[in-house]
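step: validate -> pass
step: tokenize input -> pass
step: predict -> running
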Amino acid sequence: MAMTRREFAGTSLAAAGAATLPAVGAAGCAGETRPSTDSESTAGDGAARPGRLLILGGTGFIGPHMVRHALARGHEVTLFNRGRTNPDLFPGVETLIGDRDGALDALRGKEWDYVVDNSGYVPRLVRDSGTLLRDAVGRYLFTSTGSVYDFDQDELPEDARLLEVTDPESEDVGQYYGELKVMCEEAVQEIYGDRGTVTRLHVVAGPGDPTDRFTYWPVRIHHGGEVIAPGEADNPVQFIDVRDLAEFCMHLLEEDTGGIFNVAGPTLDETRMDEFLYGIRAVTTSRVSFTWVDEDFLANREPPARFPLWYSVNGGARALARVRSHRGVEAGLRFRPLAVTARETLDWFLSESEERRAELQLNLDRDAQILADWKGR
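step: predict -> pass
step: emit ->
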């Protein structure tokens, strides 16, 4: 059964907001990504335009990848956070200690060329930091989410219908994640105008991911045996490699590009579920077979059987995997091959501690029972 809006919003929070959330397996988040290969595609091939970069957050999941890429591009990086998550991750990088909720003094009296806001969930706090920095920075890039959209649409370009804000006074991120992000975007646009940039992320994948949504599939396929392929072969699948995200964000800043951009891959056109599964199988040496199991059969089990990254194309959340990123590609967004993301995510995961790896539950007994029931129906 496909993921509901609330479930999607909750896990999206873990991915997009990992700049302020504790990372699962600090060594993994701190671990180096593999060197770029010829098969990898990066955003922007032009010369770097080094500047002073402030990152609000920076030590969770997506933040470290941004920091490393920014440093490689020659930027002078400053982090602002509470100093609680991976505080020793970047010993040579200036870190300002504070809190977005009432403790912003460390930001006063300084100037930067660029700001990346990875940790903004509550409009009041985004407005506070945005207002304080308005005259001290050039371009402000706000990390948002595809959860700002109403999923009951056929597809989601940037001008698709957004969620209606039902409780503008609430700051309950768990319940109103998407709606709060809508208001955060509005705050950034109001304060910065043409100097504001918004990226709306889909599921973020790659080395260091604490959510295991993408990671589940390389790990399960690497384990081998008979694997459930949920739904129909042509169901679309979407995610964005965290390295592609980091490169695109730096490219937008260096090119001084404003606007709103969806950030969803792994290709510009739809990637089918069968392409996704067989593409991952190609990077393993395990003996694997796939059995396609009908969506209704999975949905009618008790409890319903759910699988990461698989969303129904029917019903009120049908646009979940039909986010359109054409505008981003025109602005420089690039996607590395699925095989690269799968292989390097698997390599990272297998290098993690046994305790960390045990957190990813493959549900092999459940799947065996589903397969038996499916074949015996």
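step: describe -> Confidence is low (pLDDT under 50) at residues 1-39.
step: cleanup -> pass
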